[in-house]
Amino acid sequence: MAEKVVLAYSGGLDTSAAIRWIKEEHGMDVIAVTADVGAEKDLEAVRKKALKVGAVKALVMDMRETFVNQFVFPALQADAIYQGVYPLATALSRPLIARLLVDVAHKEGASAVSHGCTGKGNDQVRFDVTTAALGPDLKVIAPARDWGMTREQTIAYAKKHRIPVPVTVASPYSIDVNLWGRSVECGVLEDPWAEPPEEVYAWTVSPQKAPKEPLYVEIGFERGIPIALNKKKLGGVALIQELHKLAGKHGVGRIDHIEDRLVGIKSREIYEAPAGTVLFAAHKALEAMTLSKEQLRFKQTVAAEYASLIYNGLWFSSFHQDLMAYVQSTQRHVTGTVRVKLFKGTCTVVGRKSSYSLYQHKLATYDVGDQFDQSAAPGFIQIWGLPVRVQSQVQPDTKDI
Ligand code: ARG
Questions:
Q1: In angstroms, what is the span from residue 182 Cα to ligand 1's centroid?
Q2: 104, HSE (Cβ side, Cα atoms, 13 Å)
Q3: pLDDT tens-digit profile of 331-380?
Q4: Is the pTM of this model over 0.85?
Q5: CATH class of 176-353
């Protein structure tokens, strides 16, 4: 009996060719697994195609809830944004898909897992490292990394083996889509000077064409998790989908980024993350109101570390568990509502409220009702400024700035 391998199957050209290639090169039976993380494709057609091109078994699993609850929302609570702009949509889906491959491999008695990543990107790292963590007994086969075929050669290989070449192959872009965002690279985008053509965007209108009137939306949070949109309670999947539409209509969520890959390459990628853009802004605004200055300052450091570990494929690591414990603890009081204004590509927080608010009107106000004791300020400043006074006396060059 042939050994089995569980392949992450997207239905695209590369993973379809991979089914055939693994059979030929490794003599293994391929079980195709397609994780539904919200790519909005006809997944039954994808499943059938896997069988048609030679998989012995093909499974489609709805992972949308898991993706949102176990991956996306914890990253949102952490404010995990890579290099200040990338909401990590692709990066977050990889450990989920890899875990699924490992689970299916163990269930099916397979000896290996497989993915369609090339040898130049981050995704191969995320798949391989997650497999190493969760299924160290499994081999990883990465056909696109091994076969060294160009796009044209892959198309020729597919044609030779009567693998249907989808029309979308004519598109010059490499696109990855899930519930949290779209990632687009290649084609003209490889010229960092070239403005992205409108056709790369699918979820957002051009800010120029957005409505002349702003739209206000309210996001309700409970412990750092969005639970309501415009006062309506919604599950995570529905809330994100709904918010994509509202923000996308106002041109919010376009990101053009030159980023640093783990493998040392700088690359140019376009992201669309309408819901993410709004939710990160709203979440941070609520934290600004409910966390102390020290919590906020340290949390920023944690956020950068959190984003890096997600980007670099270390989801299943003790480091992540440690940071997660801190982040979860910080979210105890991040409950409340944030009002956001969407207007011609911008997303601006214009209001926030929380029953755990540390903002106290009676302390902040310059009007009647002020309870801040101004007479205590000089004594405080006396002590706060003491080290500066001593230093300027003893080391007079301190003043030479
Ligand atoms: N640069 C992003 C990352 O490393 C996305 C990679 C996938 N992009 C794509 N267009 N296929 O997470």
A1: 9
A2: 25
A3: 999 999 999 999 999 999 999 999 999 999 999 999 999 999 999 999 99
A4: yes
A5: alpha beta
